[in-house]
Amino acid sequence: MTDHSVNTLDAIEVIPSGAALAAEVRGIDLSQPLPDDVQARLTEIWAEHLVLLLRDQELEDADLIRFSDYYGGQQMGGARKKRWEIGMKESGKAASTDKRVNYVTNLDKDGNPVQHNRGTGSFELRWHSDNTYVDIPPTGTMLWADVIPDDDSGQTMFCNQIRAYAEMPEDLKAQIQGKNMMHDGSRNTANLVHPHRDMPKTREEINGPVHPMVRVHPPTGKQALFLGRRWDFPSTYIVEMPNDEGEDLMDRLWAHATQDKYVWTQHWKRGDFILWDNRAVMHRRTAINSSQPRILHRTMIKGLPVVAAWESNAAAD
Ligand SMILES: [Fe+2]
Fold it and tell me: If you measure from the C-alpha of residue 223 to the centroid of ligand 1, how many angstroms do you get, rounded to a whole number?
């Protein structure tokens, strides 16, 4: 007899967070392949809520990869891809040997929790969207919680950039209309310089792709503010503006975009699976208690070229 308690349309239950984005979805077991109709429904739910939480999942890395295949396959992190290309593959107990999955962890190579490791360690991570320092950033990111501290450290916050853009003061909207940002690719999310890069000292030394400041969110046709990641000058900058003016404007944009009214916070439990839309959501992480191990398995969904809001006739308000 078929089990109707999971992976059927009838079994799916959506519980909105009540915040500006995110919903918990029940009735789905990602350790099993999803039928086409369930995939399609989940895609609709994702487009509406942007961040999905599925609890009590017991997953293998192959399950994450299969899930990414529903959306066109996975994409390796930009910095990690570069490290692999130059022979710096991860090693040790805390590393994935599969290039399609990586472990976001505060363990060192001996498997002990630490403040500093080769990744983002136990640090607080500032607001960003993933991998905007590559030409085609990932469509989405998924994390599955394997090991989680018991003190609620290492929370992940998400903020809705469609809502932030829709409610942006008109003078701010006018200032970014048609403008682009150079996305600094020199450092990781913990502000550590990548092994193959140098810390830039001038605007001219900033290296990365140029992306529009407002992009189309393809599943809905809505417009989303697209800020990426920024450090103290010299870092990500607005191409069409002098430095001082651009820095002031970016201060205002980040302050607007990350207000509490646009934010939802994930308090991790083991077995949680989170999927977010990297085209319309920024995220950050609170510091992790460095005496406790934390291991999240991450796969990113392959992106498509960024579409500027002003380049698309299909874009809606
Ligand atoms: Fe991230």
Answer: 21
Question: Could you read off the pLDDT tens digit of each residue along the chain, which spans 317 residues?
Answer: 556 699 999 999 999 999 999 999 999 999 999 999 999 999 999 999 999 999 999 999 999 999 999 999 999 888 788 788 878 777 776 788 888 999 999 999 999 999 999 889 999 999 999 999 999 999 999 999 999 999 999 999 999 999 999 999 999 999 999 999 999 989 887 788 888 888 999 999 999 999 999 999 999 999 999 999 999 999 999 999 999 999 999 999 999 999 999 999 999 999 999 999 999 999 999 999 999 999 999 999 999 999 999 986 544 44
Residue 298 alpha carbon to ligand 1 centre in Å: 10
Walk me through the domains of the chain, giving residue ranges and CATH numbers. Answer: 13-311 (3.60.130.10)
Nearest to 280 by CA among 37, 63, 21: 21
Distance 303 CA to ligand 1 centre (A): 15
**Which among 158, 146, 189, 159 is positioned nearest to 256, based on CA atoms?**
159
The dihedral through the CA atoms of 31, 32, 35, 37 has a sign that is negative
In this prediction the pTM is 0.95
Query: What φ, ψ does residue 190 adopt, rounded to 5°?
Result: -100, 15
